[in-house]
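Write out this protein's structure.
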Amino acid sequence: MKTLIYRHLKIFIKNPMNVVLSFLSSGVILSLYFLFIRDFTMKAVHDYGFISNYTNLFVDRLMTSGLLIVIGATSALSIILIFIKDQACIMKDFLVTPISKLKIIYSYLFTSILISIFITLITYILIEFFFILHYDSYSSLQTIISSILTIVLSNTIACTLILLIALFINNFTSFTTFETLYGVVIGFFTGVYIPIGYYPTIIRNIFFYFPLCQTTSLLRWINTKEITEKILASYPTNIHHILYETFGIKLSINNYTFHIDEQLLFIFISFILLQLILLFTLKVIKK
């Protein structure tokens, strides 16, 4: 399987446009935030009555945390596209080798995880430099480690989801259509482009069960915890939940707000279920 992973990575890197477009996509997503979404989110925070010297820092930390999840969720598409092409052209050649179909499929999954983590972490480092230069704000070592672990977990879940869908797509044209649609909706499904609290209750309840919405909330909590506490220090505790829940730092369902340990459990269970579904799907397809 190592040989296959190396092969997929070589194909990805061999075409410089793959690398350029992956980072360009990250740049476009970040640019959309600074050009269109930032002012709207700033105004939304002020409209809810939370006015502080930390508002700009809070909003930028909040939104860039969400955008990192979106970047990770979309940067895996290039490798899965290689899988779609191979499936149409040379997959039969792979199947006559001693390597099992399970290992062949998982080689694409592992490669997509590696690529998405690499691109997301590079973007994360650049974002941290932005906060250092613009705000003189430094993340603690614990925050950085927690953020990296969340990014790795989120990207693994995202890559598994995409691969599961790709298993049912038989041609390049259909996948590119899905790729376009996925790139548009993922920011809404995670509550990144529009604050999750702005959605109707039924939509919030549906998105609550989407694993990447959970990882977005977790990463936001990690990166805004200290800033949020400073902002809310001037406000009564009975309204703190408005800031947390409206802007997706904490998620609630049926008037119950999940704690951080409960979110971690939910994400872990989602990860296990996705792996079981993938294994079951491969078993069925093999038959």
